[in-house]
């Protein structure tokens, strides 16, 4: 339970970071 929650939270954070980098890259 705790492990899954940590992985989920880390995945969401990583996904947001990748999405931000990707959108910044496409703008430029």
From TrEMBL:
The lineage of its organism: Eukaryota, Viridiplantae, Streptophyta, Embryophyta, Tracheophyta. This is Uncharacterized protein. It comes from the Eukaryota. It comes from Arundo donax (Giant reed).
């Amino acid at each position: 339970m705790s492990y899954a929650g940590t992985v989920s939270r880390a995945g969401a954070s990583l996904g947001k970071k990748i999405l931000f980098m990707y959108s910044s890259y496409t703008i430029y």
